[in-house]
Amino acid sequence: MSLAEPVETALPTTTVAERAAAPATLPPVTAGALTWRGARRDDAGALHALQDQVSAADGEPFRVSLDEVEETLAAGYRDLDADFLLGFDDDGVLRAFAQADVRPGDRTAARAFVWGGVHPGRRGEGIGRELMAWGIARARQKLATSHLAGERVPAWIAVHSEDDAPASRVRLYEHAGFAVRRYYSCLGRDLAQPIPEPVIPGQEAGAASSAHAGAAAPSSSGSSLRLVAWTPELDEPARLARNDAFRDHWGSQPQSQVTWAEDRDQFMAPWTWLVVDDAPDVDALLASPDTDEETAAALRAGQPLVVAYNWAARYEQDFAVRGFTFGYSENVGARRAYRGRGLARAALAAGLRAMAGDGMQYALLDVDTANPTGALGLYAGLGYEKLDGSRMWSIEV
Q1: What is the pTM of this model?
Q2: Domain N-acetyltransferase, which positions (predicted)?
Q3: Domain end position, chosen among 177, 212, 244
Q4: pLDDT per position as a tens digit, 16-58
């Protein structure tokens, strides 16, 4: 069995808090003779500089922007003093950091994520191993006090790496007890190649071709589906569509309104396209056991129903690293009741045309290699090819 394949297991018989085995105190970090403290919002510049140096040294195909770091430090659900550990040298220069995170929207699995890095010039001093031990211990504490602490649901602590990560990072993860749990592929598509028209069922192909120009594609007679660019009033319906689309994806958890609003500094509204159903069968959806409570409430309130989407972003700081300009699809999906109709393909094609119209050379996205919805076939059919890959490592709790 591939490590990427989901494993069906019975629900745990003990709570997350019991299994987390949270330590009363965190292990000290003494290696490197650095001065350690929690984070502050005005550390964003130093954190950004260090993360950029770490990514460059490790050959990662991306960079984190200053805006992203500032957003991370501004999130109200993070305790900057307790969830971050920053190490400074005698000159006050940041040389190492670690962070432990638990997202507030998780419902059926409790997930903790650990990040960190050591300046390339300070590696080999044992700082990384001690930081990792601190991060795992803090992750256990956060799991044990999270909103899912009393639930009997799966839980894990996770880190990520590129497939070609340095051997030192692989050794660090293995020494800490992590094992590879999931594989992901970064796919790219040359936007100079012809892009299919974003046609949805019940629409004339010619009418849908206006999608790349920023106008809603009008529905033909008898069709209640519309392909439209993102607007603020469709933001919450898009969140609900994303949560429904990814309910059957391994490890995915709902986006709360708080986490959904994060990471917007790179968001590209003109590249983000949605399919809206103006006349859904509300009675059938409300009667379906697959309809989640938030969607049901929105239907009763007469809110718009987004049924498919392509959520896009522009990571300009990565252009030089990749060697080309590109638009990035953060998330592509369709509600489970609307799958098999080509709606996600239409939204993605509209996004590709918008990216090309803005002069981007490529379109990129990441996909779980064991995606259960046929997404790999969808992307291959639109001309995407694998560029590189990454993996998730975990410690099961």
Answers
A1: 0.88
A2: 34-196, 266-397
A3: 177
A4: 999 999 999 999 999 999 999 999 999 999 999 999 999 999 9
Alpha-carbon distance 216 to 259, whole Å? 28
Q: Tell me, yes or no, whether 289 and 384 share the same domain.
A: yes
Domain of residue 340: give its range: 187-389
Q: Are residues 275 and 351 in the same domain?
A: yes
**Domain total of the chain:** 2
Q: What percent of the chain has pLDDT over 70?
A: 92
Which of 113, 146, 177 delimits the end of a domain? 177
